[in-house]
Design brief:
The structure is a single chain. By secondary structure, the protein is mostly helical. Helices cover 93% and strands 0% of the residues. It has three helices and no strands. Helix 1 packs antiparallel against helix 2.
């Protein structure tokens, strides 16, 4: 009986942590999109260079953190694909994770490249 309770406790804890990480990924994805839009609007609104650098630095850190959160979730879905049913659902999750990984890498590359070019050689 005690073994079942401990298994249930571990499953509930893992489920809570996993859902928290997924919610954090969604929030970081939205923040990254907002920072990209803020940078684009800032170019047209003539923001100061220091403000643009702050936006790019925030985008760089956000996308880097997003990448490191998505990676274990993607690995989890790949292992889950091997061991469970609902293959189509898991393939869709893996595709979404791969798209988010590509987005985070592109945002990180974009922000670091623009930040490097704006500082000069």
């Amino acid at each position: 009986m005690a073994e079942k309770d401990s298994e249930k406790s571990i499953k509930i804890t893992f489920s809570f942590i996993f859902r928290f990480i997924v919610a954090l990924i969604i929030a970081l994805f939205a923040i990254s999109l907002f920072l990209i839009l803020l940078y684009i609007c800032g170019n047209y609104q003539n923001f100061q260079d220091e403000n643009q650098a702050i936006v790019l630095t925030a985008l760089s850190y956000t996308s880097m953190f997003l990448f490191f959160l998505i990676l274990p979730v993607t690995i989890h879905h790949i292992f889950d694909l091997i061991s469970r049913k609902n293959i189509i659902k898991k393939i869709i999750y893996i595709a979404l994770c791969a798209a988010a990984l590509c987005f985070s890498l592109a945002a990180f590359s974009f922000s670091n490249t623009i930040n490097f070019l704006s500082r000069g050689f």
